Amino acid sequence: MRQELRDLLLSFDEKDNWEFPADFEWEKLSQLLKEFIKYCESILDLKVKLDDDIQDASFFASIEFPVDKNYNREKDSKSTLNHIYFQFSNFGKLFTLGHNPDAENQYYKEILKCKEYLKEKGFIYIENIELDAPYDGVNEPYEEGLTWRIRYFDYL
C-alpha cells in the first residue's frame, strides 16, 4: 500500500469505533446520497439500486447498476459480476467502486462523471484493489486476515 494512502486511511481510523466514527452524520450523508442518485440516474439513463439497509458494517450504503443496458435484474443472473457499484464508508466520506470498469465498458465515461461529482461534494475515492492490504491501524484486529477493505467497506 502506498504510504500516502495508508496515512489517509489512518487519519479516519478511530480506536474502538469499528462500525462508525463518533461524529457520524447519517442524515447528512443520506441526503448527499439521494442527490448523487438523481445525478447518476440522469447521466446513466437508468434506475440504480440503492442498498442503505446496512447493519453491523463499516459502510452505510451501496449503489448498484448493471454493466450493460440490456441486463435485466429479474431475468438474468443475480451475480454481482453483472453490476458496478459505488460503496460508501461510514468513515471520512470514503467511497470505492466494485468492479471498476475499464474504457471498454458501456458506462465508462458516465462513471468517471459520477466519481467527479462525488469528489466535488467532498468524497474521497479509494481504489478498490488497494483496500486488500492487511489492516495495521489503531485497533487490534479482531480476526486474522483483517484488511483495510473490511475496516472501511464491509460487514463486520
3D architecture notes:
The structure is a single chain. The protein is an alpha+beta fold. 31% of the residues lie in helices and 16% in strands. The protein is built from four helices and five strands. A five-stranded mixed β-sheet has the order 1-2-3-4-5, covered by helices on one side. The relative contact order is 0.19. The model has no long low-confidence stretch (mean pLDDT 89).
Give a short overview:
The chain is 31% helix and 16% strand. It is α+β, with helices and mostly antiparallel strands and 156 residues long.
Features:
alpha+beta, about 15% strand
Q: How can the largest sheet be summarized?
A: 5 strands, mixed
Return the structural class: alpha+beta
User: From the alpha-carbon coordinates, what is the Rg to the nearest angstrom?
Assistant: 16 Å
The counted number of beta strands is 5
Extract low-pLDDT stretches. none
How many alpha or pi helices?
A: 4
Task: Write the topology of this structure.
Layout lengths: L2 H10 L13 H19 L4 E3 L7 E8 L16 E7 L4 E5 L9 H13 L3 E2 L22 H6 L3
Parallel strand pairs: 4-5
Antiparallel strand pairs: 1-2, 2-3, 3-4
